[in-house]
Amino acid sequence: MSTLAMAILFASIGMLVLPTVVVLLLALYVPGIKTSRYRGVMIACGVALSAMIGCAWMTATFYESVWSPPPNVLLKLPPNFAHPNIIFLEKPSAPMELAWHGVDLPFMTKRAEIVVPASGVITVRSLEGMSGVSPHVTTTENTTINGFSSGPGPAGLGANRYISMVLPDTSAAQDAALSRILIDPTAFAAYLREREK
After folding, report:
1. Considering only CA atoms, which of 149, 144, 197 is closest in space to residue 176?
2. For 30-57, how does the pLDDT look when each residue is reduced to its tens digit (9 = 90+)?
3. Quick check: helix, strand or coil at residue 148?
């Protein structure tokens, strides 16, 4: 077992045990609890509650994908979609906003359904909800998209940033060509203009 794995294991045990120890100490030394005839029930309830708090603490710290699942995004592709990727642009002046459904609470997942235009370029007012954590993205063709890249918006288009999602059937050569375009702001802007014609 690696040092990191051992550290996570001991930290997890500590997060479970520490709240229980605190409750037991309170039961032993706080006069009101120590002399109560319901002391046993209070201790049992306190231990159960502290164990729940410890589990929640450990989950939020080490298992963030369980505590805060990534958002689900369904992309509705047009027929015969031929582009190798889908590009989201964040542009404050854009009329469209991402419509999220669901609530942003622990163990809950937000979802969005997005109709992809023929160009494969989607300009929205804000990319909030899709940045910081990789969303779980599927298409209407029942494929899952795992290839993501992001960065500042291309030159001269008024976009703050972009997210590129590469479709699974994209070849390695196409992927490499896209990567070269995306890191060159001028080439990226020209590429977007060409796709949106």
Report:
1. 149
2. 666 556 666 666 667 766 776 677 666 6
3. strand
Looking up tokens 């805060």, which residue turns up? 68
Decide if 81 contacts 118 (C-beta within 8 A). Answer: yes
Which residues 6+ apart lie within 8 Å of 155 measured at CB? 185, 186, 188, 189
Pairing of strands 85-90, 121-124: parallel
Q: What is the CA radius of gyration of the chain?
A: 25
| Residue matched to tokens 């060409």 | 194
- Which residues face 147 on adjacent strands? 166
Tell me, yes or no, if the pTM score tops 0.70. no
**Which sign does the torsion angle of CA 169, 173, 174, 175 carry?**
positive
Spatial separation of the C-alpha atoms in residues 96 and 194, rounded to whole Å:
21
- Distance separating alpha carbons of residues 87 and 194, to the nearest angstrom: 13
Taking residue 184's Cβ as centre, other Cβ atoms within 10 Å add up to 13
Residues in the chain: 197
